[in-house]
Amino acid sequence: MKKLIAKDLLNIRAVFLRPDEPFTWASGIKSPIYCDNRLILSAPDVRNRVENAIAETVKEQYPECEALMGTSTAGIAHAAIAAQILELPMGYVRSSAKDHGRTNKIEGKLEKGQKVVVIEDLISTGGSVIDVVNALRDEGAHVLGIVSIFTYGMKKGLDRLAGADVKNISLTDFDCLVKVAAEEGYIKESDIERLISFRNNPDDESWIG
Questions:
Q1: In terms of Cα–Cα distance, which of 145, 149, 146, 144 is closest to 171?
Q2: Which of 52, 70, 199, 200 could pair covalently with 79 via S-S, beta carbons 3.0-4.6 A apart?
């Protein structure tokens, strides 16, 4: 599954790898990768595989799950489609509470003690998804874990997830995607080591060469 999803993301250009022409993140860090998993929604065949893979992962890894909660905004559609497949309730967590009405941060019905799984499209440093987990816990939910489409596997993100005592299962990850990209001719075999160097330490730009 990891290789198939990685190939799909590359084929629909949801992921770009440009080790020789790095992207610049908002933080100023130079990156050889750009990921926009929203494009999955525009590709029916890939969308079908991804949503079914999310549903199967929830069933296998979190069989006690009683509801799915999407991250705002990218995880919402994926949570909704997977919840439909699983015939489960669904909601989502805003990045901040509304400033009007009931000032909700969590949208959708959430019962105290309800066992939920968070659906996220992308995990890099882990900060935003952990905010979602904490918001759900603050409202009394029992967060079983996370299912994400793609994760970088950066040490900072892994440490944050471990510190928050939350499990994440990704459909595919950076290391798998890089290998598939080389096999499919998106990058050179010699680029793999450079890309892994970036993953290991994004602040060290020596991989740019």
A1: 149
A2: 70
